[in-house]
């Protein structure tokens, strides 16, 4: 520390107060505190002044390199700080780009997995629906097959019953018709015998000789209403039932009685 002198003309003694220099601290904005030091110095001539000027110049020359060193260090520190800031900014940008890339990849994978799950779900749903449909179809087919089998069975029973009953039905119908005809014969046997005689003559039109035998009850009515040709002869016979006739010819004989005709029809139906 270099002292400076202050001359008091009114005082024969000189009082020298210390001069304080500022010390520049690196990386700090605080200035060192000044501590006053008082030292009484006896200076009665010009040597004290010269010493003061010399000390002042030395102090100024010694403080200049310290300031330059401090400025250089601060400049280097700032450059290093800016460089690290740029590096950090670049790393942040790279990290952000990497995050965006990973987000895009995750989004694509998510879409792919979603689509795959959707397709898998549709496929499984289709297979399940098909299986359920096939099961329902098989169950329905079994039910219809069972119904068809039962229907075939009932049809077979009905056909067997019909076949069994057919002859009985025919016989019953013949009996009913017989009763009706017998009633008609009782009321108009001659007309019935005439109609049968005409029908049989038509069947034997190739015969050269024909003889018709009728019941005496019907004889006169047939004789009066039947056109007899030269080859046709009409005669009365008690053996012939009323309402019927018997025809004899050279090509064959026919029993035209009502009962004989009923028996013939009944035989045909029973075969």
How would you describe this protein?
The chain is α+β, with helices and mostly antiparallel strands and 271 residues long. The protein is 67% helix and 10% strand. The chain is built from 3 helices and 7 strands; from the N terminus they run E-E-E-H-E-H-E-E-E-H. The strands form 2 sheets. It has a 4-stranded mixed β-sheet with strand order 5-4-6-7. The model is unreliable at 1-9 and 21-45 (pLDDT under 50).
List the helices and strands and how they pair.
Blueprint: E1 3-6, E2 15-18, E3 39-40, H1 46-203, E4 210-214, H2 216-225, E5 232-236, E6 245-249, E7 254-255, H3 258-270
Parallel strand pairs: 4-5
Antiparallel strand pairs: 1-2, 2-3, 4-6, 6-7
Helix pairs in contact: 1-2, 1-3
What is the overall silhouette? rod-shaped
Widest β-sheet, arrangement of strands: 5-4-6-7
User: How many helix segments?
Assistant: 3
Strand percentage lies at 5-15%
**What value does the average pLDDT take?**
75
Number of strands: 7
Tell me about the largest β-sheet.
4 strands, mixed
Which regions contain 5 or more consecutive residues with pLDDT less than 50? 1-9, 21-45
* Percent helix range: 55-70%
Rg calculated over all Cα atoms: 77 Å
Calculate the terminal CA-CA distance, rounded to whole Å.
163 Å
Structural class of the secondary structure composition?
Answer: alpha+beta
Instruction: List SSEs in N-to-C order.
Output: EEEHEHEEEH
